[in-house]
Design brief:
By secondary structure, the chain is of the alpha+beta class. Helices cover 44% and strands 23% of the residues. Keywords: Signal.
Length: 154
């Protein structure tokens, strides 16, 4: 009897999941065009991986100012629509990746120009590696809601 109940439950769960996955959201041509989406809803971006740079700054006040400038520059680039995602890694890793940017461009050269506006990169605290990336064209839309959920801005 338990086996029969389990089989019925699995069948019902599978049928329920199948029903949910067949529903297609309504396609929005205007939004797709605005976001630069291809027929798959995707587009090219450029990822910049920030790595530990050659410069070590022991002066905490100077380092604090650099980090303030670093965060301010991220905010400026986000406001200009150039940065789609930015953030630090929470754990050390063997590649010495410290953080990443996803830039709203498929041009490595343009992404490099933008990353070089970062005061911490200019000071050598961070170096970087650049990679082309293909992701959802809807990715930039999350930024419009970020300010609604952040109580403080670092």
């Amino acid at each position: 009897m338990k086996k029969f109940i389990l089989i019925v439950w699995l069948f019902a769960a599978t049928f329920s999941l199948a029903q949910k996955t067949t529903e297609q959201p309504k396609y929005n041509q205007e939004l797709a065009t605005k976001q630069g989406a291809d027929k798959y809803g995707m587009k090219a971006y450029t990822i910049v991986m920030l790595t530990t740079g050659p410069t070590k700054i022991e002066d905490k006040a100077k380092m604090g100012e650099l980090m303030k400038g670093h965060l301010g520059n991220i905010g400026k680039l986000a406001d200009e629509g150039k940065i789609v995602v930015a953030g630090p890694f929470l754990e050390k890793n063997k590649e010495n990746y410290r953080g990443m940017f996803i830039f709203n461009t498929k041009s490595k050269e343009e992404a490099e120009q933008w990353v070089k506006t970062d005061p911490a990169v200019q000071a050598g605290v961070f170096s970087y590696e650049i990679f082309p990336w293909y992701g959802s064209a809807a990715l930039p839309t999350y930024l419009e809601h970020h300010k609604e959920i952040a109580k403080e801005n670092p």
